[in-house]
Amino acid sequence: MKPYKVGYVAGVFDLFHVGHLNLLKRSKERCDYLIVGALTDELVIKFKKNPPYIPFEERKQILEAIRYVDEVVAVTEENHEKMKAWQLYHYDCLFSGDDYSGNEYWIQDKKTLNEHGSNIEYFPYTKSTSSTMIKAAILKSLEK
Question: What is the pTM of this model?
Answer without folding.
Answer: 0.91
